[in-house]
Design goal:
The complex is a heterodimer. In chain A, 36% of the residues lie in helices and 22% in strands. By secondary structure, chain A is of the alpha+beta class. By secondary structure, chain B is an alpha/beta fold. Chain B is built from eleven helices and nine strands. Chain B has a nine-stranded mixed beta sheet. The chains are: A alpha+beta, B alpha/beta.
Chain lengths: 287, 426
């Protein structure tokens, strides 16, 4: 597909000040619960690795934490900071304002090294299964990293086919079409699914599962999401339930001219997507 | 940039194509009016990047506000420091108050207020009563609609007789501009308005009622009619004057606001709602977008994307910007305006007219960057729509346009007629 380059962004407004007053503090807590869960799932052995990135200003705390938790941290690259939903890293050689450290935490050194080697960008001499291409500019071996991050084989295959091969950088439409019972009319899919797998509102912090399942009812992803949700609830039950409430409501996601929009009863948001000649639309209904 | 102050979201009419739908919860149970909250917000935005902007009372119907409260609001706006160089304080510059109204509730006491506060009153009216058929308390009731339309005209005359500055916000649609006959009636009405001192306003196409929406051809035809009318009768109807200025580079920003890369989440026009909440342009209310995005500086991606997709290579891109997001094709804010074709045709036509006069045209100039001191004009602002005095009677706009520039046969519905007109080739 043609590339239309627009700067990564995300914009978001609550529908009313009353909604904002109630939900903005919850959104912050949800964000905190999701971040906690990403790390905690590695610590508990639910998965083998987690992407771990941080601002150099926090280096002491962020390096101490995995060490004290008995985890291994391996840095992979220094990247420029981007806003919104970026599809790639922008590696730089040295620290400067607006850069962050990207790496991996794992509960064992072998897995950390595997993740590092699959995702490291500056080892040009290495032969890679996924060379640097237009759709994979950082040349990451997503099959290896996906497995280490705990994603099922069907979801990794989906990612490779839609994201890497077909260039669908934001595959909501494809996920919806793959869901059992989805109604497809023209470029619109009406779909119900498991709210824990709803990724439509992730740009603004509302998500439970961390990756793109191949459908909104993938049974392996459901099991995985349930584990995540339990960890989230242990950390902050109110925030986890609020997140699920947001993801359970009817909403419409669409993408036109490389810009996505989410119309949700509580908010209206937009973020960069990717270009495809036709507009696509996903109408989500709770089960 | 324009600030609109919305003392109420309620309206006494139910115009067919209004973007503030009467049935919405906001209209029925909208926020409570608070002068204190409005004043506080107005002072905050005025002391920020919106300092020096036009301030216009808007609605709903702003005259539903009680007279004492209306006077307080007018007094507040009138006494804002209009010029930063001290001219206002020195008494050299008069304050003004912009006001948009359907003109059905105007009394002598309102007129006295308008005079007292140097108001510029923009009346929403779509032509003489026989054409003003989609507005009113119930556009399906022809008797009530006629009565409403006559009342509006009567109140315009009253205001003018009292010396109030009046302009007209005219929406064009199938009810008033889809045939040559209707367009000619509409133009005759504009000529008649001049006789009572109403010399201009704005002609915008209806975009919210698909059934009544004009074709691009009809919109273009109306705009070039207005261009000719302005020239022949010394009138000041927009958007064609602004479009001409976009071509000559006289506008610092492309005008009207719809051509200045307006961000749906942080529109150029800022509204202050009845409870003091600061919101976006009232056009976005239709989408339920009342608040502004807290991250005002981030791009919304629309213009980056349009420049690489639907508008790529368009010669008018830098002075059009894809048009208003609320008028996107298929009601999709990310797409270019549904009036793209009308704008292209009109720009081509205007360019030919300017070149024939020996005026340099440069549509490729880079759009002005948004900045804190920006003065992007708002399409609905009643201020400053006049003062364009270069009419040239008898300068026929047809017959000498080079082929391939504008479409052949493009001409106004009437030509070279110093007064009203009864029929001509189209």
């Amino acid at each position: 597909m043609s590339r239309v380059e627009i700067k990564a962004f995300s914009k978001f407004v609550w529908r009313t000040p009353e909604i904002e007053k109630k939900w903005e503090p919850l959104r912050r807590r949800i964000y905190g619960a999701v971040s906690h869960t990403e790390y905690e799932t590695v610590k508990r052995g639910i998965r083998r690795c987690d992407v771990y990135d941080f601002n150099p200003d926090n280096i002491m705390y962020r390096l101490k934490k995995p060490a004290l938790d008995g985890l291994v941290f391996l840095p992979i690259l220094i990247s420029e900071i981007y806003g919104g939903y970026a599809h790639r890293h922008y590696p730089v050689k040295k620290f400067k304002d607006g850069t962050f450290i990207y790496g991996v935490v794992s509960n064992n050194l072998d897995d950390a090294i595997k993740f590092h080697d699959a995702g490291v960008i500056d080892l040009k001499e290495r032969i890679r299964p996924w060379p640097e291409t237009e759709m994979n500019p950082n040349g990451i071996d997503h099959n290896v990293t996906g497995a280490l991050l705990g994603y099922s084989a069907c979801d990794r295959r989906f990612f490779q086919n839609t994201w890497l091969r077909d260039g669908c950088l934001d595959p909501m439409y494809e996920m919806a079409k793959n869901t059992v019972g989805a109604e497809v009319k023209g470029n619109t899919v009406k779909v119900s699914g498991y709210p824990h797998l709803n990724r439509l509102a992730r740009y603004w912090g509302f998500n439970i599962i961390p990756h793109f399942p191949h459908s909104f009812d993938c049974k392996y992803a459901k099991e995985y999401a349930d584990q995540w949700f339990s960890v989230m609830r242990e950390y902050d039950a109110e925030a986890a339930d609020a997140c699920l409430e947001v993801l359970s409501q009817p909403m419409v996601w669409s993408m036109t001219n490389a810009v996505t929009t989410l119309e949700h009863p509580l908010f209206f948001g937009s973020a960069n997507g990717y270009y495809r000649p036709e507009s696509v639309r996903v109408e989500w209904f709770p089960k | 940039m324009t600030i609109i102050v919305v003392p109420t979201e309620k309206c006494n009419l139910s115009c067919s194509y209004c973007f503030e739908k009467p049935e919405t919860i906001r209209q029925q149970n909208g926020p409570q009016y608070s002068y204190t909250a409005i004043e506080k917000s107005l002072r905050i935005v005025w002391n920020g990047p919106y300092g020096g902007s036009d301030v216009t009372l808007h609605g709903g119907e702003c005259l539903l506000t009680s007279l004492p409260e209306l006077e307080k609001l007018m007094n507040l706006i009138y006494n804002l420091p209009w010029k930063k160089d001290g001219a206002f304080e020195a008494g050299k510059v008069k304050g003004t108050v912009g006001l948009v109204t359907n003109a059905t509730l105007i009394t002598d006491r309102h007129i006295a207020l308008f005079k007292k506060y140097n108001a510029y009153v923009a009346v929403s009216c779509d032509g003489p009563p026989e054409l003003n058929v989609l507005r009113g308390p119930d556009p399906k009731d022809s008797v009530a609609t006629r009565k409403y339309a006559e009342l509006v005209m009567e109140n315009i005359r009253k205001m003018r007789a009292a010396g109030v500055n009046v302009s007209v916000m005219c929406i064009i649609h199938k009810g008033n501009a889809d045939t040559k006959e209707k367009r000619q009636k509409l133009m005759q009405w504009m000529i008649d308005l001049k006789k009572i001192g109403v010399t201009g306003g704005r002609v915008n196409p209806a975009s919210t009622s698909p059934d009544m929406q004009l074709s691009n051809r009809d919109v273009h035809q109306m705009w070039i009619n207005i261009h000719a009318l302005n020239k022949q009768h010394g009138l000041h109807w927009n958007p064609v004057i602004e479009m001409e200025r976009n071509l000559t580079g006289e506008n610092r920003h492309p005008a009207p606001c719809v051509n200045d890369r307006c961000d749906l989440f942080n529109t150029h026009t800022l509204s202050i709602l009845p409870d003091g909440q600061v919101g976006c342009c009232d056009r976005t209310f239709d989408r339920g977008l009342y608040p502004r995005c807290s991250d005002g500086k981030a791009s919304s991606g629309r213009y980056e994307a349009l420049g690489q997709t639907e508008c790529r290579g368009c010669e008018w891109w830098s002075i059009c910007g894809g048009g208003c997001p609320q008028e996107g094709i298929g009601d999709d804010w990310r797409r270019k305006t549904r009036w793209c074709e009308a704008m292209k045709l009109t720009y081509s036509y205007l360019r030919t007219q300017l070149r024939n006069k020996g005026v340099e045209v440069n549509a490729q100039r880079a759009p002005a960057k948004e900045d804190a001191e920006g003065d992007s004009p708002h399409g609905d602002a009643p201020h400053g729509d006049s003062d364009h005095g270069d009419s040239y009677h008898g300068d026929a706009p047809h017959g000498d346009s080079p082929h391939g520039d504008s479409l052949h046969g493009d001409s106004p519905d009437f030509l070279n007629k110093p007064t009203g007109y009864t029929g001509d080739e189209e």
